[in-house]
Amino acid sequence: MKRENYSILFSSVTGNTKKLADAIRETLPEEDCDYFGESGAAEPVSELLYIGFWTDRGNADKTTLELLGKLKNKRIFLFGTAGFGGSEAYFQGILGRVRQSIDASNTVVGTYMCQGRMPQTVRERYLKMKEQPEHPTNLEALIENFDRALPHPDAEDLERLRKAVLS
Ligand SMILES: Cc1cc2nc3c(=O)[nH]c(=O)nc-3n(C[C@H](O)[C@H](O)[C@H](O)COP(=O)(O)O)c2cc1C
User: Fold this and answer.
1) Could you tell me which of 120, 121, 102 has the C-alpha nearest to residue 111?
2) At a CB cut-off of 8 Å and minimum separation 6, what does 151 contact?
3) What residues does each domain of the chain span?
4) pLDDT greater than 70 at residue 26
5) So what's the pLDDT on residue 107?
6) Ligand 1 and 96: CB distance under 6 A
7) What is the pLDDT of residues 71-116, one digit of tens each?
8) What superfamily does domain 6-117+152-166 belong to in CATH?
């Protein structure tokens, strides 16, 4: 039986989501890959699409949402990174919002999310805020989350992604 061709499209500003895209590329047969690259650079030709996003204010980034909004009759594996994590429910909430941009003629064949490190400027902003007498009470938790995100995506995240892609 002929295996199905696929494309991998991703949006990644600081490189976290690209790491996931690279891991998928290394996992799937190269000869079946129609396209690998940034979302928005090309019209997706394959029926099976691996689409990667970074989380922007609780949803997928704008480029990915625009791409998803155009798709019809595709099979979509959604993967993404988010600065916050530690709970599957948080990821499911984001994925639920992302799915709202996908037309019903498409089928979501799989999903995967993990944490992705945030730029150091974010931590510096938290520390500055902490110096103010009137600062948000959850700053300590935000700083802890920032530090937890630093090593991600790590080797274990990528291994879980490979398993999800092959299942
Ligand atoms: C403008 C902006 C908004 C963000 N909003 C969220 C958010 O709502 N939730 C979250 O968990 N992470 C948020 N993040 C963190 C990124 O989603 C996270 O660091 C991601 O791994 C970046 O992926 P990339 O390296 O592929 O660009 C935001 C980052 C930026 C720059």
Assistant:
1) 102
2) 117
3) 6-117+152-166, 118-151
4) yes
5) 98
6) no
7) 999 999 999 999 998 789 999 999 999 999 999 999 999 999 999 9
8) Flavodoxin domain (3.40.50.360)
